[in-house]
Amino acid sequence: MKTLIFGATGAAGGGVLQACLSASDVDEVRVVIRRPLPHISDKLRVFVHDNFLNYAAITKAFVGIDACLYCLGTSATQVSGETEYRRITYDFALAVAEMLKLHSPNAVFHFISGRGASPDSRFMWARVKAETERDLLAQTNTVCWRPAFINGESLAIGPQRPLLHQLVRSFFRFTKPFRHLYVESEDIGRAMLQATAEKLRGRVIENAEIREMANRYQK
Ligand SMILES: NC(=O)c1ccc[n+]([C@@H]2O[C@H](COP(=O)([O-])OP(=O)(O)OC[C@H]3O[C@@H](n4cnc5c(N)ncnc54)[C@H](OP(=O)(O)O)[C@@H]3O)[C@@H](O)[C@H]2O)c1
Q1: What is the architecture of the domain spanning 2-216?
Q2: Which of 37, 112, 114, 181 is 20 to 30 Å from the Cα of 207, by its Cα?
Q3: What's the CA gap between 139 and 74, in Å, rounded?
């Protein structure tokens, strides 16, 4: 299987990358990122790219792919407002999905959304995520993943995490026994690989089911 990862330097994407590198049924892992990654595996092919709306310069990254594991995203608290959040969440994801459909039409697009995504939510981020899910599901072979709290290592932040981040993480670790509230980022990757093997399409998967699917993955 050949996978293509976006957001591999993030908390979610770091674990998803690790899951792909460890998987015996994945022979090539391509990542599209803003800055280079160290060479950590012979399976890894890194495409450094800076325009997340136009992929003409790296078309070959999209050819021959079985699954795109899309973990790129941001928090509504880290952007200037809805316009920027929508560009990163909706426009970026749809641009990748379109390229994938063109160059690997049978591939599945795994989109990380978030627990609580809903068109009727009072939260802007949840409405934008829901719109993105809706349009991806309508336009291509998509599975939408709705994790709650993701415990994962960001390659971007590394060991020197801000104190607030460490505190939040420590707090949420207590939610681990609750299957609908907590997931390890590597388990998201394992669940995505399991869903790819099962040829799952057109589904929205909540946190507890992510953990169940990850447990089924035996490669
Ligand atoms: N963390 C959670 O508990 C949680 C829970 C539910 C859902 N989610 C969703 O999961 C997704 C990933 O979250 P995360 O926690 O992994 O976030 P993160 O640690 O901040 O990582 C975000 C990833 O997206 C990339 N990215 C962000 N903005 C970008 C931009 N403008 N252009 C190009 N690349 C950009 C980052 O690249 P750089 O490293 O280059 O910045 C990084 O690889 C998001 O959609 C989020 O809503 C997260």
Answers
A1: 3-Layer(aba) Sandwich (3.40)
A2: 37
A3: 23
Q: Which residues of 9-37 are buried (b: 16+ CB within 10 A; e: fewer)?
A: bbbbbbbbbbbbbebeebebbbbbbeeee
Q: Is the CB of 90 under 6 A from ligand 1?
A: no
Sign of the Cα torsion 200, 197, 36, 11 reads positive
User: 102-133: per-residue pLDDT in tens?
Assistant: 999 999 999 999 999 999 999 999 999 999 99
pLDDT class for 165, splitting at 50, 70, 90? confident
pLDDT grade, residue 43 (50/70/90)?
A: very high
Tokens of 181: 């509230």
Report how far ligand 1's centroid is from the alpha carbon of 10 (Å). Answer: 5
> How many angstroms separate the CA atoms of 39 and 181, rounded?
34
pLDDT of residue 112: 98
**Nearest-CA neighbor of 2 among 47, 48, 69?**
69
pTM as predicted: 0.96
Q: Is 70 in the pocket of ligand 1 (CB under 6 A)?
A: no
For ligand 1, pick from 6, 35, 72, 80 the residue to mutate: most ligand atoms within 8 Å of CB.
72
